[in-house]
Design a protein that fits this description.
Elements (H helix, E strand, L loop, with lengths): L8 H6 L16 H8 L3 H4 L7 E5 L3 H14 L5 E7 L5 E5 L24 H10 L7 E4 L18 E4 H6 L3 H11 L1 H10 L21 H12 L10 E6 L4 E4 L11 H16 L13 E6 L5 E8 L2 E8 L14 H13 L12 E2 L21 E2 L5 E2 L4 E2 L19 H7 L41
Antiparallel strand pairs: 1-6, 2-3, 2-10, 4-5, 6-7, 8-9, 9-10, 11-14, 12-13
Helix pairs in contact: 4-11, 5-7, 5-8, 5-10, 7-8
């Protein structure tokens, strides 16, 4: 302070540091989670220099405040929460890595590896749709054993014949297991790789229920790619870098992205995701405009997830303990879905309402105020959601297969089979700049018969 001319040498000599009382920190600056993640990326964007820089970022401070408030208000006591919110091109608009940055600067949105539970079924059902399934096709919820593994439903019972849409909306584990076995667990793993999951993915049968550990930001990007019509999304936080004098050092180029699945596959999974919010396990995520999303809950309620999108914004929410201990009452359809809704109401408030390619129409009884809507008594074959609450199945929708997929624009993304095969490890990467640079290319193999797949069972099995 003397060198800076703020105080005199006499003042410095008379100061007694031992008697200085530090002001107590109040509140938390959650935007630091974002800056801690984004600013280190400067090393990859510009050459090292000594001149002061102006860095332009994607964060929206209003959305960041709403995200912080939502996590703090909805995360149960003794539990941590994380949230990532992406614009349609991957721009990170809000990032919360914990309930209080001052207490813990560990970024659970970008660093923590947690099991996604039934949120992983996004990849299972996309693989099934790509293999030829339609959202209205009949499936059977019944006991099933695959290579010695017998999945169970969180309700503890089986509900017989239903359509694919209902099985997804109410997160039926046995159906997901049978779909994974039929299309091939390698196909599911490859779909996850295709959509940006970079953490290790096994091909054990129980992987269909979300036994692989993932990052919140990666799962959010996968859902954002679905919202974008099946086009890849790469999260980013820096748009421009200049010197203090105004010299431009970096400008993020516009990216077209890669087409990961055909349009009709993205339309089909969006149809299923809508139903999960409108009539299924994600009802608490409704915000008064079209929303598509999926819950996830792991064994003994160690993790709770909700991921979804509306009006061009995709948001992922995770809650759980850092030590991965069980949390009573923590399910994806409760606190995480509520946090998602509280945040998204603010995030999309000034955006126009956007309809999806398929429209799920709710029956009149479910359009009543929440406090006046009753689920009714379950019958012998009635459904229950992941929270054990009885549910009914009336709805009407237009199947996505009735919609003609639009032709890709001449200058837009196209389905690049070579790129997809490189991403999924089916062929070695080329040197054309399209292969990942982070060494995350998986070693998966094309789907094979059940006898050719690994039969080991991982120690932890998510329940939903």
């Amino acid at each position: 302070m003397v060198d800076a001319g703020v105080i005199s040498q006499a003042q410095a000599d008379s100061a007694e540091p031992a008697n200085v009382q530090l002001a107590k920190e109040t509140g938390q600056n959650s935007a630091r989670y974002f800056s801690d993640w984004a600013l280190p990326q400067l090393d990859m964007l510009i050459d090292e220099g000594s001149e002061a820089l102006d860095v332009y970022t994607t964060i929206d401070l209003g959305m960041q405040r709403a995200a912080t408030a939502s996590i703090q208000a909805n995360t149960p006591g003794g539990v941590q929460g994380a949230l990532v919110s992406l614009d349609r091109d991957g721009a990170v608009r809000a990032m919360v890595g914990g309930k209080d940055y001052v207490t813990s600067n560990y970024n659970r949105a970008t660093q923590a590896l947690r099991q996604p539970g039934s949120a992983w079924k996004l990849f299972v059902y996309m693989a099934a749709l790509e293999a030829g399934y339609k959202v209205g096709d009949p499936v059977v919820d019944e006991p099933v054993t695959i290579n010695g593994w017998s999945p169970r439903n969180s309700s503890g019972r089986f509900s017989g014949t239903m359509d694919l849409r209902s099985a997804f909306a109410y997160s039926i584990n046995t159906v997901a297991a049978k779909l994974g076995d039929e299309v091939g667990f390698s196909a599911v793993a490859n779909m996850a790789r295709r959509f940006g999951i970079t953490t290790p993915v096994n091909t054990h049968p129980s992987m269909v229920l979300g036994s692989a550990e993932v990052r919140v930001i990666d799962m959010t990007a996968a859902f954002a790619a679905v919202a974008r019509g099946g086009v890849s999304v790469q999260p980013y936080g820096i748009t421009k870098v200049t010197t203090a004098s105004g010299e431009l050092l970096y400008q993020r180029p516009a990216e077209r992205g890669q087409t990961l699945v055909d349009h009709w596959v993205a339309a089909g999974i969006t149809d299923l995701l809508q139903t999960a919010v409108n009539t299924g396990t994600g009802r608490a995520a409704q915000i008064g405009r079209p929303v598509a999303g999926k819950t996830g809950t792991t064994t003994s309620n160690k993790d709770g997830w909700f991921l979804g999108f509306s009006s061009g914004i995709t948001t992922g929410v995770w809650m759980g303990r850092d030590d991965a201990k069980a949390v009573g009452g923590l399910q994806g359809g409760r606190a995480p879905a509520k946090a998602f809704a509280d945040y998204m109401r603010v995030a999309v408030a000034r955006r126009p309402v956007e309809q999806f390619d398929t429209e799920v129409v709710l029956p009149e009884w479910q359009l009543e105020d929440e406090g006046e809507a009753y689920m009714g008594e379950p019958g012998e074959e009635g459904f229950v959601d992941e929270n054990g609450m009885p549910i009914e199945l009336p709805y009407d929708s237009r199947p996505p297969e009735s919609i003609a997929p639009p032709l890709p624009p001449e200058d837009g993304p196209v389905l690049d089979q070579q790129w997809i095969e490189e991403q999924t490890g089916r062929r070695p990467p080329t040197d054309n700049g399209m292969a990942p640079k982070n060494g995350a290319v998986p070693k998966g193999t094309p789907p094979g018969p059940p006898s050719a797949r690994p039969q080991q069972r991982p120690p932890v099995e998510p329940s939903d």
